[in-house]
Amino acid sequence: QSVLTQPPSVSGAPGQRVTISCSGGSSNIGAAYDVNWYQQLPETAPKLLIYGNTNRPSRVPDRFSGSKSGTSASLAITGLQAEDEADYYCQSYDSSLSGYVFGTGTKVTVL
Amino acid sequence: EVRLLESGGGLVQPGGSLRLSCAASGFRFSNYAMSWVRQAPGKGLEWVSPISGSGDNTYYADSVKGRFTISRDNSKNTLYLQMNSLRAEDTAVYFCAKDVYNFWSAYGVFDYWGQGTLVTVSS
Questions:
Q1: Pairing of strands B68-73, B78-83
Q2: A107, A42 contact by CB (below 8 A)
Q3: Do B45 and A101 touch (CB under 8 A)?
């Protein structure tokens, strides 16, 4: 049972904007620990998408952006493309568990 | 180019043991902490264990504590996971992941992942 909760699925038409929420608590996101996001395309390994709440690795398109507020974080994808169909996971640190935690994961579907 | 290649997965009976390896290349292996992350079939990601770049510091998720041991051989650029007393719930794809830092901390970021190796625990 993950301590970081994400919606199971979100969907949007090509070109639209979708957001994925990552809801935590006072021992993880709310304790000022950073949130990272990973994209997992079907049958592949996860890839780093966003680190340190808002930063993108150079290879990641600027259509992807991250934000954090209070005990939650969000990933936004603008100009949705077919290649964005994947599972997305948030990740942070939890002081109660003394370890890293991943979100429950969100499947993005491009209609 | 950073490459991580896991091996050692397979079918094992409950109570059995298995050792996973992760061969790293394309970066100075000893300079970075590494972790094992697993994913049960059709499920989400679960962090299992980290190890610092020197190998001095390790940690384990409660679900594997006392049964799994992480280690590394910096001379061989290889990460290991010794898994003992395996249970059905350990069935998963096991990924090795590189951290951006030398030591494992509350601010770890997994910037590269291997393709994973499947461990199936079943009689």
A1: antiparallel
A2: no
A3: no
| 8 Å CB contact between B58 and B49 | yes
Q: Does A66 touch chain B (CB under 8 A)?
A: no
Per-residue pLDDT, B106: 83
Residues 6+ apart with CB under 8 A from A50: A35, A36, A37, A56, A60, A64, A65, A66, A75
Please report residues of B whose CB lies closer than 8 A to that of A103.
44
CA separation for the pair A38, A33 (Å, rounded): 16
Residue of A nearest to B39 (CA): A45
Q: What is the mean pLDDT of chain B?
A: 96
Q: Which of A46, A47, A93 shows the shortest C-beta gap to B106?
A: A93
A53-77 confidence digits (pLDDT tens): 999 999 999 999 999 999 999 999 9
- By CB atoms closer than 10 A (0-12, 13-18, 19+), residue A35 is buried
Q: Give the ranges where chain B is alpha helix by DSSP (H).
A: none
CA-to-CA distance for B3 and B26, rounded, in angstroms? 6
Average of per-residue pLDDT values in chain A: 96
Q: Which of A45, A100, A101 sits opposite B116 (nearest CB)?
A: A45
Q: What angle do CA A4, B89, B6 make, to 5 degrees?
A: 85
Token match 């608590």: residue? A25
